[in-house]
Amino acid sequence: MKNNRIIYIDMLRIISILAVIILHITADLLTRTNDFNTISWWISNVLNSVARFAVPVFFMISGAMILRTEVTSYREFYKKRILPLAIPLVSWSLIYDAYNQYFILKSNLMIFQFFTDFVYRLIVDLNYIHLWFLYAIIAIYVTVPLVSRLVKACSEKELRYYLILWFAISIVYRFISDMVFRVASESIYVPILNIPLFMGYLGYFILGYYLFHYELPAKVKSLLFNIGVLSFFVTPVATYFASFYSGVLDEMFYGNYSITTFSWRSGCFFTFKRKILFWAKSSITKSRD
Q: How many CB atoms lie within 10 A of CB 239?
């Protein structure tokens, strides 16, 4: 830490911001053409695969930073954490909807009709696809006053149990379901695995808290690191074959819940933690000497 800042968290933020920029730049070519054998497509595919750690890492950073704080007032928490997100969500949704209606669609909606359409699109997230992150993070922040108490009351073993179940349901089960759908065009549904607390981005949120406060066993770190390195090579190749098979870009191996990139994201978090802390300690020792 330096000046009450956590260096490796700041470094992760910077790298993740750059990765998001790379995602948006490369996504244009990947979605604009179905010519999967060009050099430009492959470069975009590789860069996009590498940068896919960014969004889950943002959730993990938020979990690491926010869940460690004590929520003493719901009103103050909502004012400090949720209102600054709700304002840009509403304002940018309004801008995008107005631009879409009056400049793209050239519609003649009256003010009341436009407002009704805007409210509907705001509720169901239809104004602009990239605003989804604000919806997701606001939904998680609403649970923080309760979730923060839950994680603080849990032991390391109990948190690890939660994360194992979340991984099995949100990562493994979803991956198997996606594979079956692509091969057999049939969806699989296992009712017993429909457990809301163990589904979605909340798992990444709590994973960030866990990795911030606890050290993984050396064998688990090594396994995640090795799988992460393997995923580095597997993801673009698997994306190529899946896209070639379907005829259009298939983002199954890119996804935020993709099993091929889960270890890559987790590995980025604890690797930055270990390397930056090691560097900081070495710098302090040298300065003292």
A: 24
> What number of CA atoms fall less than 13 Å from residue 228's CA on the CB side?
20
What the block records as the tokens of 51 is 């940068």
Report the 10 Å Cβ neighbour count for 26.
21
Helix (H, G, I), strand (E, B) or coil at 190: coil
Neighbouring residues of 21: CB distance < 8 A, sequence distance ≥ 6: none
Q: What is the tens place of the pLDDT at every residue in 175-199?
A: 888 888 888 877 787 877 777 778 8
Count the Cβ atoms, other than its own, within 10 Å of residue 237.
Answer: 15
Find, among 127, 133, 64, 119, the residue nearest to 92 by Cα: 127
Nearest-angstrom CA–CA distance, 183 and 224: 28
Alpha carbon 219 to chain centroid, angstroms: 25
The answer, yes or no, to whether residue 286 has pLDDT greater than 60, is no
What's this model's pTM, rounded to 2 decimal places?
0.85
The string of DSSP codes covering 69-129 is S----HHHHIIIIIHHHHHHHHHHHHHHHHHIIIIIS-----HHHHHHHHHHHHHHT-S-G
25: which 2 tokens?
A: 């730049």
> CA of 180: how far to CAs of 177, 186, 242, in Å?
5, 7, 13
**pLDDT tens digit sequence for 63-97:** 999 998 888 888 899 999 999 999 999 999 999 99
